[in-house]
């Protein structure tokens, strides 16, 4: 006899063997024992959750000559005929290929004939949502008032596509996704019966990869066992067959992203590609890894929901303490958007690398993307600034790529060093006079609207005043905001925006308001009229 797939060989033959659908099994068994059998049932649920299996067991149970506690005995003549698919009492119809009006009319004509043996004729219509509108209409009257010996069982994965007139005539049963523990328990039982050698960790991963489908789990196990036939099936073997990645890779990738190490993140992605891993699966598993991390940050009592080993849970809790939850939520948003794009893309690796650029270098996002993502990117840039300022040295952006390896301006302890900044708008632009600075103060609101969004946020609560020569003083209450403009590149960008507005070059000098209180300085506050300007004494 030819080989039979595991999901066919071990398909349940009685209600007690059905796993994960106790609420449905109990109801159907009680109906059979009490002889309260309905005439139309609708079984809904995702693939591989037991809809067709339960329908076949129910068809046997209602015709069984010696039922045991509502379940078929599998020994009488009727049970054996149904198991061998030779019974005329159980008719299976695939609505995907028999979806026309004529097909339903044939059923309507057949139901007028009573069964030659047994009690009931059971019609199992699989994927019933594929029927045409005309076919549904032809089924209505028969479904509402069938002969007493006819039972209809409609099975579908998309109940929302079924007309309400059909739904109202059926008893509806929703099949739930099967839990990982239930799937793993069933796999362990079948592995023992098949005399297979499979590592426990490998079984748990297969159960999780099945995504609530018992049939998918058995198919994956069949595939992995066939690849390593006669050998012990380990966790690493399963990852290799399914093209998946170990969780340690996700931990390394997350650390690279959090630290802004784009080159290292791309190198790690290169390792994943060289190992032949499936990139779509990599994105999906990485999202689940970050989801688990976010749940750990929300609560410590989620071991049963996370479904990971105690060793991995301890590592996850340790990592959860090193990264902020808002960052993790932004990473999940970016990769969730990526998972929708990558499915049908021929350039999956390129899309992942673009996502890594977004996450590792938030400044490159600019004004693109949703407002929520822009705000999250800006918050991450601020956190990077805070870390750099806390370390005592702030290096201006772009210094690492300067020709000849020259260093940019650096911020240490509130002073700016690194040489004089070049003229913001070129050497031909004259320096601003006092009246020009007063014009800048008057045009301050329009100048803010000219700069990039991230800079505009930093300037929103800044106070501005006229300094000596062509200096414009920016007063900040937050050291982080001041540190942003301590970067030479950011100052130059603001100076260019001012020069474009007034046609004169202005030197921007950031300062903290706390430092000016002792000098009794008066800053212009946006929203108030103040064109007098105040001079401050700054050392050259």
Automatic annotation (TrEMBL):
Residues 395-431 are annotated as: Disordered. SUPFAM superfamilies: P-loop containing nucleoside triphosphate hydrolases, post-AAA+ oligomerization domain-like. Its EC number is 2.7.7.7. It catalyses: DNA(n) + a 2'-deoxyribonucleoside 5'-triphosphate = DNA(n+1) + diphosphate. InterPro entries: AAA+_ATPase, DNA_pol3_clamp-load_cplx_C, DNA_pol_III_gamma-3, DNA_pol_III_sug/sutau_N, DNA_Rep/Repair_Clamp_Loader, HLD_clamp_pol_III_gamma_tau, P-loop_NTPase. It comes from the Bacteria. The keyword Transcription does not apply. Residues 299-326 form a coiled coil. Keywords: ATP-binding, Coiled coil, DNA replication, DNA-directed DNA polymerase, Metal-binding, Nucleotide-binding, Nucleotidyltransferase, Transferase, Zinc. Signal peptide: none annotated. This is DNA-directed DNA polymerase.
